[in-house]
Amino acid sequence: MELNGTNEEFESLNNQLNDESQLQEYKKPFDDYQTGLLPRMLGNFLVWCGNTVYGAQPSYLKFRAVEVIARVPYHSWASASFTLLTMFYTDEKRALKLSKIVKFARLAADNETMHVIVVSHLARAEEEAGIIRYTFIPMFFAFFYFWASYVLYLIKPRWSLELNYLFEQHAFDQYSLFLQIHGDELRAKAIASDFLAWYGRHPRSQYEFFREVRNDEIIHRNRSIHEIGLNEGR
Q: Would the pTM count as exceeding 0.85?
């Protein structure tokens, strides 16, 4: 299922991916995608930094830090596209390409914002967070990631999109592992969030919430590569 930038389509696809066979079918075409050297180096650096600071195993507080950073590239692409539209507004074909990615970026940014707000809400009840490790350091990473994504997008959009592919793959793997390790415990935990209800999701347990977030991340991963094709006219 391709997305045209509507929340209804996004939510429909997310629900479909609750079925394991459909999830594997959706993942498979891009599981072996090979990124360029530069995005691979930056992606490995970001993942290494995250694992060094927050540990290799998934946790509520690690997800909180990850989600602060995960929102960044979508805002970065929108800003870079605005810059390019200001420079090349007479090129209608190019303007259309840029406007398409901005539409997706806004949808994804709203989705990632929901992640960080709800995960932070859950984390407060589970673990105590130090302000330096879980507030200042993620903000520093986010600042670096924003400008790296912005500059890469201006130079070569493919690099910025591939960097996001790698980050979203890491997020998907972490949420999948979290569900595998803590599945029974999460099924027994209720979830109540005004922001989540406002967003339009109503999971019956923390397991269902984190499964939805896992699905979001793989959609973002695949869509990043899909955007490369749109940008390059394929």
A: yes
